[in-house]
Amino acid sequence: MVTERQAALGFTVKSGWASAVLVAGPRAAPQVIDCRRAELSDPSVPDSRQPYHDGFGTARREGPELSRLLASVRAFGLLSVREVLVRFQACGYDLVGAGIIVGSLTAPETIQNDHIRIHALEGHLFRQVVEESLSRSRVSSSVWRERDLHGLASKVLGLSEPALRAELTALGKPVGGPWRVEQKVATLAAWLRLAGA
Predict the structure, then answer these.
(1) What region does 50 belong to: left with phi over 0, alpha with psi -120 to 50, or beta?
(2) N or C: which end of the chain has fewer CB within 10 A?
(3) How far apart are alpha carbons 125 and 85 in whole angstroms?
(4) How far apart are CA 79 and CA 47, in angstroms?
(5) Predicted confidence (pLDDT) per residue in 16-75, tens digit
(6) For the whole model, what pTM was predicted?
(7) Domains (ranges, CATH) in the chain?
(8) Cα-flanking dihedrals φ and ψ of residue 145, to 5°?
(9) Residue 174: helix, strand or coil by DSSP?
(10) DSSP state, 144?
C-alpha cells in the first residue's frame, strides 16, 4: 500500500535532456511535488547534444571525437541526474521507483535507415545515462515507450484515456513553469510506479 510519504520519479528522455517529475501520494490521489529539466549533455560541448551526428543525416565516424563526446555525455548526464535525485530526495519522501519514457525501444543496430539509426543511438545513449544514474542510487526503474503509455496507464489505473489526460492536466496546475507533453508523460510514468507497475 502506497502512503502519502511515498513518491516515484518520472523521466521523459529527449536528445540531450530529460523532463524529471516527482509524484507523491496514494495512487488514487497523486500530487506533483517537483518538476524540473535534467540536462544530459554538457551545454559547453554543443556537439554532445547529438553526439552521433556529424551534420544533417550524417553519422559521426568511430574515433577519438565520438569517444570524447560519448564520455562527456556519460559524465555530465550521470552527475546531472544524480543532482536531480538528491534534490528530490531532500523533499523527504521515500522513493518507490522511477519510470522512464522513451520514443523507441527498438535496438539501434536493427534499423536500416542511417539517419533514423543515428537518432536511435542517441536515444539509447541518453536513456542508458538515466538508467545508470538511477541504478547507482539504488532506485529501481521501468522503461516504457511513450506511445504505449496511456493505454497501459488506463488499464493499470482504471481510468479512461480521456479521464487520464484530464487528470494529468489538473496535476500540472500547481506547478510553476511549463506543463507540456514531456512533463505530463513523466508524471504518468511516476504515477504508474506509485501504482506498482
Answers:
(1) beta
(2) N
(3) 19
(4) 18
(5) 999 999 999 888 899 999 999 999 999 999 999 999 888 776 888 888 999 999 999 999
(6) 0.92
(7) 6-194 (3.30.420.10)
(8) -80, 135
(9) coil
(10) E
